[in-house]
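Incident log, structure service

09:12 report received: a user says their structure output differs between two submissions of the same chain.
09:20 pulled the input from the user's history:
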Amino acid sequence: MDISLYFDPVSPEVFEFSSPTDHERIFDVIKAHKSDETFPDLDFIKLAIIGISEDRGALLNKGCAKGPDHVRRYLYNLYSHWKNLAIADLGNIKRGHAIEDTYFAAKEAIAYLLSNNITPIIIGGSQDLTYANYLAYEDIGRVINIAAVDPLFDLGNDENELNSRSYLSRIILHQPNFLFAYTNVGYQTYFVDKDAVGLMKNLLFDVHRLGKVNLDMEETEPMIRNADILSIDISAIRASDAPGNFNAVPNGFYGEEVCRICRYAGISDKLSSIGFYEFNPEYDNQGQTAHLIAQMIWYFVDGYMNRKDDFPEDNKDFMENYVRFMVKVDDFDDELVFLKSKKTDRWWMQVTIKNNVHKKYKRHQFVPCSYNDYKAALNQEIPDRWWKVQQKLI
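09:34 re-ran on a clean worker, output below:
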C-alpha cells in the first residue's frame, strides 16, 4: 500500500525556521517529507508525525487547520537526546473534497502505520479527527481503549452530527464497535451536564475531575497506561499557558502537567497513537502554544525511547518478570490478583476471563493500577478499576 498518495509535503517555511547545528536537534535526525525529495522510507521507522490540516468539524475554532506546521517550527529546533531515534515526518494529510474524504485518508494512513508497528503522532486540526484515528483500529481488528485529556466529554446533542464536540458519541454508537473503555482525564464540572456524568458512569467509563487529578498527578499514570489512543484537546490547558484556542479558558492543566501526561503516554507499551488537537495559531501569543505542544511531543518521544517492555502477557515465562500478590476480600469468592513489575515497579490487576466469547478482550484483562489500589484491596475495598473491567467481561 502506497500511503504517500494521502500526503502533502511539509511546508518549506518550516525548514527556513530551522537550521543545522553542531549538536543534534530533531531537525537533524528526522526523516521529513520535503517537496524536493521522495516520500520517507518507513523501513526501521518507529515514530511518524502526521499533520492533519482539517477544521471543518471545529466548533468556534476555525483556523486550527493551520496548526501542524506552526508546531513543527518549534519541534524541529528542540534537541534530540536519544541514540537511534527512528522518527519520520510524513507531512500533512491532503484535505479532501468533503470532510469524510479527509477522515478516510487519515484512517488509511494510520491503519497502515499501526499494522507496521509504527506509532503515529497526530497534529490536528480539530478533535473530531480522533474518530478517524479510532476507525484505523477497526481496520486492523483491534479492540481498544481511548483516553482523552479534555475539559468536556464531547458527546454532543445530535447523534447524527459529527464534529469536535460530538465525536465520542459517534465512536460509542459505531457498529461494529471496537471501543472497550474510555477514560476522561481532567473534565471541568461547570462545563459538563450532571446527566452526562451519570451516562458516562452507566457506560462504565472512567471520568476524572480536574481538581481530583491535580491532587495527585501520579494517579494519572495508570489511566494513561490503559489507553491505546490518547487524544488531547488543547483547551484542557489553562489559557495562560496555551492561549492558542478560541475555546481557551482560565482553568485547566499547567504546561508542565500535560508534558508529564505525555511522558506517561510515551512510556506505556500499550499506547500506540497520540493526537494533539484544536491548536489555533490565530489566537496564539508569540508562538507560546505551538512551543508548548512541541515540548509535549518531545516528552512523548522521551517516554517512548525509555519504554521497558513490561506490559504483562499471559504466559509462564513472561510472568517471571513480576511479583504476584493475592488478596482475599471478605464476601468475595475470588482472590484479587496484583502484579508488580520487577523492571519498573509499576502495578497491574489481573481480571480472569472465563468465557470463550470474550477471548477478543484478552489483552484487556491486565488492568493498570497503582500501589494505592493494592492498599485499598488490603483494606477490603474492591478497586473501581477492577469492578468496571470485570463487569464488561461478564
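09:41 both user submissions now match this output. Likely a transient worker issue. Closing.
09:42 reviewer note: The CA atoms of residues 70 and 387 lie 43 Å apart. DSSP finds 14 helices and 14 strands in the chain.
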